[in-house]
Amino acid sequence: MPAPTTTLPERLLARCKDTPDAVAYLHRGDDGKWLPVTWHTVAQRAIGIARGLSLLGVQAGDRVAIMLPTSPEWEYCQQAVLMLGATVVGIDAHDAPSNLHHILELTQPRALVTGNERQLALIRETWRVPEIIVVAEPEVPHPDIHALADFLQTLDTGATPPSAPSPDDIATIVFTSGSTGTPKGIAYTHRQVALACDAILDRFPSISNETTLVCWLPLSNLFQRIINLCAIVCGARSYFVSNPQDIVRLLPEIQPSLFIGVPRFFEKLHAGIMAEVAKQPAPVRLLIAAAWTTGMKTAAMQRSHGQVSLTWRALSMLANPILARLRAVMGQRMQFMVSGSAPLPSWLMDRFHGLGWLVLEAYGISENVMPVALNTPTHYRFGSVGRALPGNELLVAEDGELLIRGDGVFSGYYGADAHDTPIDSEAYLHTGDFARLDADGYVWLEGRKSEVFKTSTGRRIAPAPLEAALKQIDYVDHAIIVGRDRPFPVAIITLSPEHEMGKQVQTPEGQKTISSDVARACEAFTPYQRPGAVIASTRPLGIATGELTANLKIRRKQVETRFERDIERAYEAPRLSPDTDIRTNPPVILTP
């Protein structure tokens, strides 16, 4: 694939020229109605903000931090900053204060665009106030603070950007998730981000100006921004949902044709469907179960043989009207969904496919701006993360680690020593993921090197498969396996606050149920892999407490620190009951 020669603002202006009156964005007004924004308006608002920032002194090479909710304003500001040749630094207001301080200290933004005075106070408490401050709320209490609305009051329909970047200027600095330590900065150029957009659209040719997308993930997340840039290239329309808690409620209104989410969303979606099914009368539940079983059987036939027998096709026709009512939660125009950022359990993909939804896994790493590999509607294998995108050269090292080489790979951590890099002398990026490639080029991930551990008996434990099995238990919210250099693994589970087990766990009967459910969920694993004790907590993991990243990945070190005393108790518990078979009846340690 040839390297792009256009910058990101040039792509917006080209879209504005081609389809100026087409709807680009939709967002909810104060009355709850969806308000459309055309491509012409998007371009002119970005130009207006660029001119305003330029008058305040922002120039090429400056870093501008954006801390806004997921909204069209985020995109206007991003394009404005890029038009000036400046660099976008996305900030998540829900990130841990220590991470916010680190990101701001490393990037030293000259300007900050934020939502309101409360968020500005957060920056002030965490770091310091940048030289230039712009807030989105209309009322500005201080003369040194500028209102974003002032840049948009007078828009010249013939205006052009005040300056233009080059394809090799830095477009954005993003940060690793920080799941294993302090987040590290990564700078990407306009050319590299454009390369990622082109590779995605090449692999998904069905994305067009007829496609309806949903922008709901935090825009500090580069992947969501890249999807929005893909929408610019092909002219797709995007609905903006600022509060992730509203997404399921709004999806029937939005009727997306493509949905992108993280495993946590899909797990919650399935749990929500099952909760609604459980409320139905017994005959209805049996009917739904039969229809869903039929759907799963026919979907499995389709995946395995490419065709379905006449009998099962007939049964599928009877089941489909029932399953369509369950699918209505995502609207009626869904073509496929994409899951990324962490592994999605195969059983969940099977369940959704039986329901009539195709969920495709993709795989990326912060140090490569392009997705490494992804499945497509025409070429997919459940359990794999698909095949490499054009431009990614993959190699599996002798120890099983996946290596990547290509134009999307970063050049080194921002502001770090040149020796602090996972890139070797042959320009291969060491991903830190164990993987294998099959004969058809599909990538199968087998765990993070940093997460795989050995017990004191010398046995190697990969936590991810065990955690996926435990999360099939309907009341388990999160599951983490620990046990490095210990006699056996221990399972830490947090209980879903909506489930009645949250109350029953206080009783001996509830703890006995948890013990037996955990043992049953892990019975397919060899005995040395099964948890020898279970730590159960009714307090969820959180982003603000540092246990989850902004992408909802688990920060294992922080989780182990939180449960440190309980882990010690877990290794003492079996010795208190020497007659207990900890593999089939693991003791349960209750903790707040």
Task: Please specify the SSE layout and strand pairing.
Elements lengths: L7 H11 L4 E6 L5 E5 H18 L6 E5 L4 H12 L3 E4 L6 H11 L3 E4 L2 H10 L5 E4 L9 E3 L22 E6 L9 E5 H14 L8 E4 L6 H13 L2 E4 L6 H8 L3 E4 L1 H16 L3 H24 L4 H18 L8 E4 L6 H10 L3 E7 L2 E7 L12 E2 L4 E4 L4 E5 L23 E9 L5 E6 L4 E2 L5 E2 L1 H8 L5 E7 L7 E6 L5 H4 L3 H14 L12 E4 L18 H7 L1 H13 L11 E4 L1
Parallel strand pairs: 1-11, 3-4, 3-5, 4-8, 5-6, 6-7, 10-11, 12-13, 13-14, 24-25, 25-26
Antiparallel strand pairs: 1-2, 8-9, 14-15, 15-16, 17-18, 18-19, 19-20, 21-22, 23-24
Helix pairs in contact: 1-2, 1-7, 2-3, 6-7, 10-11, 10-12
Description:
- This protein is α/β, with parallel strands linked by helices.
- Among the domains are: 8-165 and 204-261, Rossmann fold (3-Layer(aba) Sandwich); 453-591, ANL, C-terminal domain (GMP Synthetase, Chain A, domain 3, 2-Layer Sandwich), CATH 3.30.300.30.
- Helices cover 36% and strands 21% of the residues.
- It contains 17 helices and 26 strands.
- The protein has a 7-stranded mixed beta sheet with strand order 7-6-5-3-4-8-9, sandwiched between helices.
- Strand 14 (359-365) and strand 15 (368-374) form a beta hairpin.
- Helix 1 runs antiparallel to helix 2 (39-56) and helix 10 packs across helix 12.
- The radius of gyration is 25 Å and the shape is globular.
- It comes from Parazoarcus communis.
- Keywords: ATP-binding, Ligase, Nucleotide-binding.
